[in-house]
Amino acid sequence: MMKVAKGKKIVVFLDYDGTLSPIVDDPNSAFMSDEMRAAVREVAKCFPTAIISGRSREKVKEFVQLSNVYYAGSHGMDIMAPPRPVMDKKGTEVLFQPAKSFLPAIQKILTELEEETAKIKGAMVEDNRFCVSVHFRHVKDEDYQILEEKVRSVLENYAGFHLCWGKKVMEIRPTIEWDKGHAVEYFLETLGLSNSDVLPVYIGEDRTDEDAFKVLINQSH
């Protein structure tokens, strides 16, 4: 890896859950350790660093508590990044939200899911801003099928959304051509690092991180 990196600018991309923090029973308790925070802080001093999470951007920023990294939430659908270098070389960070028009529907879906799943013990609905997560880690096996049916019944009323699965979680997301891979491309462009002299390093363990891996593999060929 050191040989490949020689003479190149390194940029670091990180997932959050399962990468910077352990996978835990309660999603609201996925805290990163002080040691991990210190390590990320030191990395970000040396290389541009972005955290791309399925969580809401505000939530992951609250967990990480670092001001020297960039944040993208909702699997890259909510990005706080530098201004595009071609347009504005100076200025504050700018917000990019490709699924913004879906927000009103997402709030309706969130309310309906909370109502529909309220009686299923162990089910937890999480508002991740541009996607809605239904955690079933604590749902009994015999209740899972009922839960999935209720989630699908809500989804049937919203044509512009689809269902995805993660680790013990179902997610309802807007059907747009945007994922963590697109978020990586966006960051590289806005950071002015989309040329061959750059070595992007992406660390993640979730299925959604594979979208980013594919983009970076294609770029390296």
From TrEMBL:
InterPro entries: HAD-like_sf, HAD-SF_hydro_IIB, HAD_sf, OTSB-like, Trehalose_PPase. SUPFAM superfamilies: HAD-like. Its cofactor is a divalent metal cation. PANTHER family: TREHALOSE 6-PHOSPHATE PHOSPHATASE (PTHR43768). The keyword Hydrolase applies. This is Trehalose 6-phosphate phosphatase. It catalyses: alpha,alpha-trehalose 6-phosphate + H2O = alpha,alpha-trehalose + phosphate. Belongs to the trehalose phosphatase family. Its EC number is 3.1.3.12. Pathway: Glycan biosynthesis; trehalose biosynthesis. One of its GO terms (molecular function) is trehalose-phosphatase activity. It comes from the Eukaryota. One of its GO terms (biological process) is trehalose biosynthetic process. Keywords: Hydrolase. Removes the phosphate from trehalose 6-phosphate to produce free trehalose. Trehalose accumulation in plant may improve abiotic stress tolerance.
